[in-house]
Design brief:
The chain is α/β, with parallel strands linked by helices and 231 residues long. The chain folds into 2 domains: 137 residues, TPP-binding domain (Rossmann fold); 83 residues, SIR2/SIRT2 'Small Domain' (2-Layer Sandwich). Helices cover 35% and strands 18% of the residues. The strands form 2 sheets. A 6-stranded parallel sheet has the order 3-2-1-6-7-8, sandwiched between helices. The two termini are 15 Å apart. Bound molecules: adenosine-5-diphosphoribose. The site of adenosine-5-diphosphoribose has 23 residues, from α1. The site of adenosine-5-diphosphoribose (APR) has 23 residues, from α1.
């Protein structure tokens, strides 16, 4: 039974050196979303899209989890499967920090998706040189990330957890992309206490019960201490 749902976004990985999307200098600043993050962009120019995600996969391999990721892993050690981390991030910093109950709603950089057979193999290397799918052998792999216009992963499980949790915490996300941006309203409607830990107040559609502004590496360890002290 999920008691606490934590929704994370790019802000939790920012202090590890992974760029966010919408901040100044963010990832979308140098790219048109429709070119690198839509199925149509991939169809038009797969080489550019592969190079974009190959570069991000390499960059993420060279960074390490920060105090905020580690604090959430500590929370899981304390309360076990009552904690569910739902992340919009495609990096694997939650897992590398020690969290195991993590749902990647926007997919994972370290996984490929075979558009021929549907396999989703773990993937470390570049995709631009069109390696064969380990399942079917076709050279039809794409990054296993959810692009604009595609259906995010695990929606049923996430919604079930959001409507039944006691605490919903949103960390490092601008609240600009749905359905994730709608979870705070859903959690509040079903009686959860809502908390935001973000560098600045987000564009949330309903106010959080408790909104804290600051860096994730400071706010998250402090909040985890409070939760563990109260549980
Ligand atoms: N600590 C806490 N919050 C931070 C920090 C930090 N060190 N640095 C930045 N932030 C906050 C920003 O203030 C912003 O509100 O993190 C948020 C990042 O917002 P976005 O760049 O919009 O990232 P995210 O919300 O994860 O984006 C959602 O959009 O394009 C997509 O698929 C992509 O999953 C992504 C989705």
């Amino acid at each position: 039974m999920t008691r606490i749902v934590v929704l994370t976004g790019a802000g939790i990985s920012a202090e590890s050196g992974v760029p966010t999307f919408r901040d100044a200098g963010g990832l979308w600043e140098g790219h048109r979303i429709e070119d690198v993050a839509t199925p149509e962009g991939f169809e038009r120019d797969p080489d550019t899209v592969h190079r974009f995600y190959d570069a991000r996969r390499r960059a993420v391999a060279n960074v390490i989890p920060n105090a905020a990721h580690r604090a959430l892993a500590r929370l899981e050690s304390g309360i076990g499967p009552e904690l569910l981390v739902v992340t919009q991030n495609v990096d694997d910093l939650h897992e590398r920090a020690g969290s195991s109950n993590v749902l990647h709603m926007h997919g994972e950089l370290r996984r490929a998706l075979c558009t021929w057979c549907g396999a989703r193999p773990a993937w470390e290397d570049d995709l631009a040189d069109r390696p064969p799918c380990p399942e079917c052998g076709e050279r039809m792999l794409r990054p296993d990330v959810v692009w604009f216009g595609e259906m995010p992963y695990h929606l049923d499980r996430i919604e079930q957890a959001v409507v039944s949790c006691e605490v919903f915490a949103s960390i490092g996300t601008s609240g600009a992309v749905y359905p994730a941006a709608g979870y705070v309203a859903l959690a509040a409607a079903f009686g959860a206490r809502t908390v935001e830990l973000n560098l600045e107040p987000s564009d949330a559609i309903v106010p959080f019960d408790d909104a804290r502004a600051g860096a994730a590496t400071e706010l998250v360890p402090a909040w985890v201490n409070e939760v563990l002290a109260g549980s």
